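chain below, 716 aa
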Amino acid sequence: MRRMAITCAGFLLLLVATGFASRDDVKLTNRYGQVGLWNTHSAKTLNRYGLQTNFWGSYTAHDDFLVNFWDRDGDPGLSDPIDPIPGFNAGEFNISVGYGFTDFFDLAVMVPVYLDKIAKDSNEDIITDNTVKGGAGDLEVSMKFQYPPNQESDFFKMAYYGAMSFPTGNTTQGRFPRHNYYYAWPSEDTTYIYSNDGNVEVDMKMLWTWDFRELSEEFPVLFHFNYGLRWNTNPDLEHVFMLNAGLDIRPRPWVNVFLDYSAQPSFSSVERRDVVLPTGEERQLGLLDDPMRLSPGIAFLTPGGFNFSAGAQISVANEDKQFLFYGREDALFETAVEPKAKFVASIGWNGIVFEEEEPRVGKDNPEVYSWPRAESITYGQSLRNARLYGGSADIDGEFSFVHRDSVPNAGVREYSVVFTPRDTTNYAAAFNDVSVTIENVETSVTAWPRARSITYGQSLNEAELRGGRADVDGEFFFVEGDTKPDAGTASHVVRFVPEDTVNYTISNRDIEVEVAKARPEVSQWPETDTITEGASLADVSLSSGRASVAGSFAFAEPEKEPSEGIESHEMIFTPDDTDNYETVRGSASVTVEREAPRAQVIQRGALILEGVNFELGSADLTRESYSVLDRVVESLRDWPEIELRVEGHTDATGSDSLNRRLSYERAKAVVDYFISQGIQGSRLSAVGKGPDEPIASNATADGRAENRRVELHRID
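prediction:
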């Protein structure tokens, strides 16, 4: 308790003694000898003639880090691992020196020292060597270069960082690795993982720092971000990415509370890979299987230049993934990616080793109450044409653009304005950025182009534009170039786009485009049927005509009546879409045959069908009757306008009612025959007269034969 009380009192005394330190008196340096947190670099520098020395150390005794342990005792073979697994202790110490050659360039040298010890515990009889193993690691030389030099803004700083690590250490010293992991792929089936591989390494990073104290003293926060690559000169090994970020909170000028993040993913980890380790175990490697750390800590800065820091380094990599590392020849270790946690502390000093010459009395800075506004200008004018107005300051002077002769591109842009006091002996110039609006120049099209005519079905892009001219380089084209316009003459929008669209406007105008009708392609003219002499071409049946568009075929002179024989006659194909397609002319051969003679016309009045007889006492026609009836059928076919009434007559022999029925049936039998030969029934009617209209005496046999007859009467 007494020792704890003395320690607390000393700590409070230290806080009181350092309570009046300026925030820039002492800088916190990292393990590499540069300004920054433990693993993350700040873009700020030590400043000119700044010198720093630092001692950074870490210690871990995490039992889960050692997964398997083989004590080979000179035996190169791999037997069963020692069980139970012994504990271990591991320490690392970095000694660094840095120097600021200018306000924007620092150089630092760092040498690491590693110490390991295997604890015997219950394996005292098995483990042959539990002494402390260790030694110096690889020498690393680093430099930091602020760019641009002498940055005016203290809120944001940017710097380039480069380092080279030289293989000055002994790779067999120290059982556990501290450097970056490097993967080698000697074959498709095996994977080896190295650290301290004995090759030159090159580290290149970009450093960014934001100091929010410059915006408000009530927000004492700095944020650092680093990214880059660490290259291994061994061509068989992979390289690694370097990612660092640090949040630095300074509630008092003499105290820093920080959180440091660092990661070292390899190139192969970006794409997960299945690998086989030397022990034969198959595993899959990914981003979380590479070193990844969070380091919270606190630092104290004293006016005398000393700084102290303490905290922890916590691994957030996968805990269930292990890697094989070869330590010394007498032991083989299988470990996790990193120890779960380490205790970290550092102590250092930095200050200015050479005093600057007695400073001269500097010029006073004028107070600018309001910076002027700038009138807009047009592209092609220099900044001196953008009149400044409305500015005021506490002394007499003049506002002007720093680069007055600059001719800016169009847009709203920031340009530096200088206030130059009249009394330049005692007052310095003041600078600030002012927004200037630069308008586009309206493009002058001296001649709009003409469009070459196109055919229906072609797009406007195929209508070549000729003869267009403008006062600047550019291109004319149709706004809707893929449009396929209908035939005829119509206006379409042409656009002129200057090559320099930033500074010149785009112009549009309607121009007329002539679109000719397309000519259909007739792949086959139609075939024609034969007609009879006296018929016109309109009576010719057409078939099998084909064309590239829908339409119809017809003769050019359909009213023409061609002569007997085979003649060629002009034909026309008329598209359905006559607005956009032309008619096409061709020819087709027409065969004209002589007209066949027509049958004799049936005269009006009673026509007795001589030779038409029936079986005795029946309505059945005799065989010789058909030839007579067929001649009547031919007449009816050739003279379709004729309509007939067929009358049946008998002699007076027998009963009157029987004769009437028989006469009708015989007339009906004639009508039915005509119909069976294709004559329409609507043109025919049957009537039975019986013995009522004799044409001869029924007293004689010849007279009765004449009375038994069939008569035709035209009724049309």
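The mean pLDDT is 83. The two ends are 149 Å apart (CA to CA).
thats it, cya
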